[in-house]
Amino acid sequence: MKAGLRFKPESGQLTVGYMPLLDSAPLLWAAHRGYFHDAGLSVNLVREVSWASLRDRLAYGALDAAQCLAPMPVAASLGADGVGVPIVTGLCLSHGGSAITLSRSIAHRLGITPGMNPVESARAVGRFVQTGGRLRLAHVFAFSMHHYLLRDWLALGGVDLDSEAIEFRVAPPPQMVRLLESGAVDGFCVGEPWNTAAMRGNLGVIVTPTSAIWEGNVDKVLGVTQEWATTHPQTHRALIAAVMLALRDLATRDVVREMTGLLLKRKVLSVPEAWIDAAFHGPDAISPPRFAHGLTAFPRRSQMMWCALQMLRWRQWAKPLPLAALSAQVCDGAAFADAAAALHFPLPAYDTVREGGGEVELGLDGTTIESRFISGDQLDPENPAAYLTARGWLPDAAQAVITG
């Protein structure tokens, strides 16, 4: 990566955290292919045990950077996460790649089958709840797309999410299948390969990929603390550029077999090789990792606005929300642009788009990206209160809570 050498890292030794998921691949691939080295970086990749511990270790300096859940920088910068150490992102790593899985017994009882329309499966849950049924559903972290899109799916079926019929639980991704097998939960929303593991183990039915609820949703990002980004601007850009090259390979080359071998060699995942291969691109692959590339890797402020609005919707934040300032703080668009320019990758023309309506123009060259909600009004970054009113908020309350 000769272009990456234009950056002069303030620190060449980095510790970067990741979770045991298929979409940790960009970081592993960047190390494997020597992209970190070419950018002047010596990176120690560390497998973390949970999203909560990863967040804490990043916030308190044990990690220089980490694979993060997309809403995590928003919650951290807002102070909603209880830690309050601002985190920023200059790069999206993946879109979708997660799915909602129910136990085979529950799916059979509700009449839910693989490939069923997400609205119909959600309505089946709604009917079950209306007749006194209860479900225990796990997701990976309170501030995650898994949590928010799981709720959006249930809302499609008219499920009252304030009732006691739905109990939400949090668990690390590698524990999901065990919890399903033991009967501790009835279903979960998690990234791969854990949905495929439940299906291949005859324990679960994959109900829907989260990409069917929001096509183009940002799932994981590369996160650093705001303080670290300020004191290490060149290192940050070199790191982003190295991972951009890995994303390019993963999105445009058939490297599944080599990537599978790398995941097994590094003992990232303790599942059979055939399951990893199936999760990547097998005939039953329902929610394969979708690695960001080009302008889909650009962290849009409007994506982070959506995340912040979920924190209002689900009572994770009750104070006025400075939406424009918060999203601008979280998204390090300048770092992305500098790294992309060094690699001669496409550059964005805008930092926000109307989310949820389909194909929208984003690039200086007219390049478009996809962002489509399964239902409901779009998110207009110029009028975010309308997003809340379309989902049951009183107009005055929605206007009052968004302060800028």
Note down, in words, how this protein is organized.
The protein is an alpha/beta fold. It folds into 3 domains: 214 residues, D-Maltodextrin-Binding Protein, domain 2; 118 residues, 3-Layer(aba) Sandwich (D-Maltodextrin-Binding Protein, domain 2), CATH 3.40.190; 50 residues, no CATH class. The protein contains 18 helices and 14 strands. The strands form 3 sheets. It has a 6-stranded mixed sheet with strand order 2-1-3-11-4-12, sandwiched between helices. It has a 5-stranded mixed sheet with strand order 7-6-8-5-9, with helices on both faces. Strands 10-14-13 form a 3-stranded antiparallel sheet, with no helix packed on it. A hairpin with a 6-residue loop joins β13 and β14. α1 packs across α11, α6 crosses α7 and α9 crosses α13.
Outline of this structure?
Helix content is 41%, strand content 19%.
Give structural attributes:
single chain, 18 helices, five-stranded mixed β-sheet, alpha/beta, D-Maltodextrin-Binding Protein, domain 2, 404 residues
The neighbouring-strand order within the major sheet is: 2-1-3-11-4-12
Name the overall outline: globular
CATH homolog superfamily of the largest domain: Periplasmic binding protein-like II
- What distance lies between the first and last C-alpha atoms, to the nearest angstrom? 40 Å
Roughly what percent helix?
40-55%
- Number of H- or I-type helical stretches: 18
Structural class: alpha/beta
CATH class category label of the largest domain: Alpha Beta
Radius of gyration: 20 Å
Query: What's the structural domain tally?
Result: 3
CATH topology type of the largest domain: D-Maltodextrin-Binding Protein, domain 2
